[in-house]
Write a structure and sequence with these properties.
single chain; about 625 residues; alpha+beta; 3 domains; 5-stranded antiparallel β-sheet; 9 helices; structural molecule activity; bacterial flagellum
Length: about 625
């Protein structure tokens, strides 16, 4: 009689708990990370080990629930985690490359100001004396420099924002690692195979999935389900072991970003293979290259225009100066600044920029040279060694700005000048004598426009097939034959064509108000560059297309990675997910088993009552 009661009682208890597991599966069918639970039964016996969910019924017969199993495939789980990392990496890279492309295209494109500048140069070459045309050229040159500045600022801002996102991802990884260490500690204190252990295992896997979307992980589980995590593989630095978690830091590097694991000073580098940080690192490589190419283009444009412009003369007959300035002071706020102060800088023409520091003491600003050779204190604006500093916003005590020279696209600017200072005319003119019998033409090459030849004008005369170059004092500077270059005092000349006996050519400097356009044409020739792909427009297009191609490539790979992730998720869902039809079948089976055990208890009670009645 007692065996029947024990059998029925154990069955009711065990199958009640099993039905609760089914109900839990159904309730969490759509819960991300929930793994289907199943009940593991074993016969009850004297002296046997108690089940994980109930006390031993103490009888010699019956059934008990000894474990709650999770229907999980660890290989599929690892595959999904790795594909999630690939998706996160390509998503981050594609997203940021799109932002980089946007910063260089549309209203931010360099094509428009470049074309406008050369269009203004064409007008200037056609009418070099028109003041309005000259003013337009200066406006277009200033607009091009401004676009270079804004593009550089946009890319600098993107780099700062990208680094901020990378640091946030590093902080998130630290938080997840600590949470995983806490779960490990709770798993160690929880009975193996219990429902609580299954719930903790679900939480562990959810944390690992989130961590895997940030960085590649190598995960190993012990018999209690505690996770040991290394980055990015079994030979990498240890991130989580038991209830201990190491911290990570994300740092900028020449290769994009660097992930370091462990306390500062004793940390180890962890290669970035997948995950959002790897994607951000890839995007930063592309961003750094775009900034370098933009700086190179700005430097080349400024250098080419300056070189040609200095070879001409302006409306006053003066040598042309540089057209673009290529350096300017830049103020960088300290990261710990707490106020809203902003500063603008202006450097007097001809002044030399020195590294300086601007600091606020709560009442006044102090501007000082870093070499200690000068300082000034007071309210803004302040001026030191030709550098003027103005401010806006509200500073806080201790706010600091570092001031240093910048170059490249961020520094290019139009030199302060008026329209009459545009050097449209050639510096040197050559004229054939009216009595020449030949048809030869003369070409002139100046070695260094900044070191003009002395004692002009010059004369080139043909006598007996020998060409002689003399200065205004009759001094012979050089000689040669037609077709070859004859070196003079910092310049060289060449005659090509038919040269008659006694033919002569005068070489003189251009003067004021000449109306010449030779140098304007030389500036316009910069539009075509010196070879295929060397023109400013072609290089600007190459800059954008390189980023656009990279963005399209990452997007295409992202679509493929997402499909692989979806397939891995589907395979895991088939193995570990909840199927409502299966759960319904299990529920029906368990209900029947429960009813059968309840009927055993009822039968035992009826028999017991019958025995009692018969004994009266």
């Amino acid at each position: 009689m007692s065996d029947m009661l024990f059998i029925g009682q154990s069955g009711v208890r065990a199958y009640t708990r099993a039905m609760e597991l089914v109900a839990d599966n159904v309730a969490n069918a759509s819960t991300p990370g929930h793994v289907r639970r199943t009940a593991q039964f074993s016969p009850a016996g004297n002296g046997g080990k108690s089940g994980v969910t109930e006390l031993d019924v103490g009888g010699s017969s019956g059934v008990r629930l000894t474990a709650v199993n999770r229907a999980v495939d660890l290989l599929q789980l690892d595959t999904l985690r790795r594909t999630e990392g690939d998706v996160a990496a390509l998503d981050a890279s594609s997203r940021w490359l799109t932002s980089i492309e946007a910063a260089l295209t549309g209203p931010n494109a360099l094509d428009t100001p470049l074309n406008d500048l050369f269009g203004a140069l064409s007008d200037l070459a056609n009418d070099p004396t028109d003041l309005a045309v000259r003013e337009t050229f200066l406006a277009k040159a200033d607009a091009l420099a401004d676009q270079f500045n804004r593009s550089a600022d946009d890319l600098t801002r993107l780099d700062s924002d990208l680094l901020s996102e990378a640091r946030i991802e590093g902080t998130t990884l630290n938080d997840l690692s600590q949470a995983l260490a806490d779960v490990n500690g709770r798993l160690r204190r929880t009975a193996e195979g219990s429902a609580a252990a299954a719930s903790l295992a679900d939480e562990r896997d959810r944390l690992l999935a989130q961590m895997g979307s940030i960085s590649t992980l190598d995960v190993s589980l012990d018999h209690l389900g505690q996770a040991e995590v290394r980055i990015p593989d079994a030979g990498g630095p240890l991130l989580v072991s038991g209830s201990n978690a190491q911290s990570v830091r994300v740092l900028p590097s020449a290769t994009g970003l660097e992930l370091r694991v462990g306390p500062s000073g004793a940390d180890e580098p962890a290669p970035l293979l997948s995950g959002s940080i790897a994607g951000l690192s890839d995007a930063r490589v592309q961003l750094t290259e775009a900034r370098t190419r933009l700086d190179t283009l700005a430097t080349q444009v400024a250098s080419d225009f300056n070189r040609v412009h200095t070879e001409g003369v302006d409306s006053n007959g003066d040598d042309g100066g540089i057209l673009f300035q290529t350096t300017r002071p830049l103020a960088t706020p300290a990261g710990a600044n707490g106020g809203s102060a902003r500063v603008t800088l202006a450097l007097e023409e001809g002044a030399t920029a020195h590294p300086m520091t601007l600091i606020f003491n709560g009442a006044d600003w102090t501007l000082s040279r870093d070499d200690g050779l000068g300082s000034v204190t007071g309210t803004l604006p302040l001026t030191l060694d030709g550098l003027s500093v103005e401010g806006a916003g509200t500073p806080r005590n201790g706010d600091l700005f570092r001031i240093a020279d910048s170059s490249g696209a961020a520094a290019i600017s139009l030199r302060p000048m008026d329209a009459g200072q545009i050097a449209t005319a050639q510096r040197w003119l050559s004229e054939a004598d009216a009595t020449n019998s030949g048809s030869a033409g003369l070409s002139l090459r100046v070695d260094d426009a900044l070191l003009p030849p002395s004692s002009p004008p010059y004369t080139l005369t043909n006598s007996g097939g020998t060409l002689t170059l003399t200065d205004s004092l009759g001094t012979v500077l050089g000689s040669g034959v037609a077709g070859g270059w004859i070196e003079g005092d910092g310049f060289a000349v060449q005659l090509t064509g038919s040269v008659g006996e006694g033919d002569s050519f005068a070489i003189r400097r251009n003067g004021a108000n000449s109306g010449g356009n030779g140098n304007a044409l030389a500036l316009l020739a910069l539009r075509d560059g010196s070879g295929t792909g060397t023109s400013p427009g072609a290089q600007a297009d190459a800059l954008v297309s390189r980023v656009a191609v990279a963005a399209a490539s990452r997007q295409q790979r992202f679509e493929i990675a997402r499909e692989n992730r979806n397939q891995a998720a589907e395979a895991l869902s088939l193995a570990s997910g909840v199927d409502l039809n299966t759960e319904a079948t299990d529920m029906l089976r368990l209900q029947q088993a429960y009813n059968a055990n309840a009927r055993i208890i009822q039968a035992a009670r009826e028999i017991f009552e019958t025995l009692l009645q018969s004994s009266r």
